[in-house]
Write a structure and sequence with these properties.
It is a single chain. The chain has 89 residues and is an alpha+beta fold. It contains three helices and three strands. It has helices at 22-29, 40-43, 47-62, and strands spanning 35-39, 67-74, 77-85. A three-stranded antiparallel beta sheet has the order 1-3-2.
Length: 89
């Protein structure tokens, strides 16, 4: 299955998401049931890849913060919902 993997050279590594990114800022301000939309025009990739990337960014932000998010493809893009937020330690 993985015998013929193509090796690429010179591909830049994307910078890690910073806590100051637009997605992090939105996630930080959300309450349970809130959502925000990321238009397809901003994702620049196919459906599965875009949804996976958005989910990964949400998971990275939520790590250790006890937030839970869900991402769904909707007409015109992707929507992120906060589904729980445990503020107790």
């Amino acid at each position: 299955m993985f015998k013929n993997i193509k090796i690429d050279k010179g591909v830049d590594i994307p910078r890690p998401m910073k806590e100051s990114s637009g997605i992090c800022d939105a996630l930080r301000r959300m309450e349970i049931g809130d959502s925000f939309m990321i238009p397809s025009s901003l994702t620049g990739s196919d459906d599965k890849s875009a949804q996976s990337n958005i989910s990964a960014q949400c998971c990275q932000f939520a790590r250790g913060k006890k937030f839970k998010f869900t991402v769904r493809k909707v007409e015109g893009g992707y929507r992120v919902w906060m589904i729980s937020r445990n503020t107790t330690t």
